[in-house]
Amino acid sequence: MSKFKLAIGLHNHQPVGNFDFVFDESHQKAYKPFAELLAKYPNIRISLHQSGILWDWQEKHKPEYIKTIQKLVKKKQIELMTGGYYEPILVSIFENDAYGQFEKLDSYIQKRFQIKPQGAWLTERIWEPHLPKILNNAGVKFIPVDDTHFIYSGFDEEQLTGSFVTEFEGKELRLLPISKRMRYLIPFGTVDELIAELKQMAAKNPNGMVIYADDGEKFGSWPKTYEHCYRDKWLQNFFDAVTDNSDWLEIVPLSEAANTEPVGRAYLPSASYAEMLQWSLPAKPFVTYEQFEKFLKEQGKDKIFGRFVRGGHWRGFLTKYEEVNFMHKKMLYISEKLQKLQSKHSKSKKFINAQDNLYAAQCNCPYWHGVFGGLYLPHIRAAIYSHLIEAESLIRQLEKKQLEIKMVDFDFDGHDEILVETNKLTSIFKPNNGGTMIELSFLDKKFSLTDTLTRRKEGYHLKLEQAVTEDKADGSKSIHDLVLTKEDGLSDYLLEDWYLKRCFIDHVFTDDVDFEKFKSNKFGEFGDFVLERYDSHVANNKITLTRHGKIRQSDGETGLTIEKSFQFSDDSETIEVVYKLTADCQTPIDINFAVENNFNFQAGHAIDRFVLIDNEQPKEAYLDSYGKHKDAHAAALIDQYRNIGVALYSQHKSNIWHLPIFTVSLSEGGFEKVYQGTTIVNQFNLKVSKKPIELRLTLMTGDESAVKSFLENVQITVS
User: pTM here?
Assistant: First the structure.
């Protein structure tokens, strides 16, 4: 007698660079107890996908788990699925990289478990119509995707009773529509509600099926779910209920669903799960979308018209966040470089190492932002940059090139950037946007100094006033329904920047701007330099950026020219910077001029990371501290954890301000304040006229001792 089937697939993953304790906690609370409980129910068979990142961690730290999975695979309780080894968004990387990622995970599974997986997990279920060709070429037979993908293309929910066939250029793929209703019931509904829902489905279609596929972390590592699933025995009760109803119900792996007679043919639009599509929207449309969804539900119209309501597109994150786009384009740039070296160096250890670092840098997690931290998590971004920079360093060793400065539209905004590549560092300038330096990376340390995050309004910020602490939360609610906060007073940090927080940002402040006004982000500009175009010139390893702008005065406007030059050398981590300011007037005028730089060493409040002013620690020296210092020559940020530092020295004394960049974001743990870097401002009170004023600055990078030695020497010179 045939039975109604609930096909289950679980996806376990941790980001590249995530903290070891997070891996361990997720393992202890979710991965391990689920596998151990499953082993007690031999009638329950499921599909499992784990990213290569997680397999690697478990091989090193929890080898007994690998043995458990091997036993379950042998007993056919678990079938393993493939995917990109480092969990990339497939549509965001080159096809060759996608094939390499699949091959790497296939090889791992074949070596450890002696099987060739037939199905694949689609990262974040981000679908575009050309994917069947890539997946088919990678040997994939089927994938689960959300039922919303089908509903957006005109299917009714009642039609989604099995697998569907799709293709691209004749390359076939089976699609399994994941039930959103099941995603929200498992494990957040009661077991009785879930069984009742399945009975209702079976009554309509006794020989049919429904697909459930979702994150394994929701069975233990999401807030309150460990207590819910194991201490309160939700998962055991569910497995018992399935066993008790085995006369009409069975749980099967996804391959059995994929191998049934297909329901029909389907061509899906570009989509992801509904929440991701909302998250990709800018802040105002984000809120409008939410309001309209609420309106439809209140009017009882959501089931009728909901299929026509959808958010944006994953690629919208490349527009919404400059930081995502820049990281993505750096990844593509490095991939293209590797492809050019492949024919000559593909067998070399350096090439293979560079390629694996590239693959690791394609991990999807910081390339988007939603309920989970993603882009807003500095340690995840830092890990991606570390792998990108390591790949970059190995490529330079293979290329055997010296210092190179070139013009290229690096971020694909229609304007050329200036790219500097030396044996010590890489740097990128944006002439069309204030002549700012948007990247400074150390090759030796595999670290990006400029990996900061600009503060923005987010659509979910409106929910902050509804947030409660975790101890008051309802553990039975979905993560999408919970509104948690980790601390009080976070609304005080909801500041919004109107320019990218990177380096060598030129301010001509209004006369009243002081430290407090800058700190509150309520400052005015007399000049038009922060966002405007600078002309560029490159010669003799020097970049010169010039803008003839205007400054407002009480009696009208006056022309002001700012010229800034950056001198590089191939084997030095020091950049000599010279500013020249010239006004169009003969009579000197007073201006409130400042140069802003933003750097990030991840930990804002750690004793091994601190600020130096003229080579001395101020009273408040943490990187997340606030400070203002009169008539100083140098500011430095030191990271003893990495043994790295950066110093900015000026021959002219200035008022130096340092202050943290805090964002407020929403993660699975609730609203939280996150340190995103430290701002250093050199503020000069200058008199400018037709006679140029020259300000000489030195940006010095290196290990802690080198930075301190540099500061000692320049102080001696000045004194």
Answer: 0.94
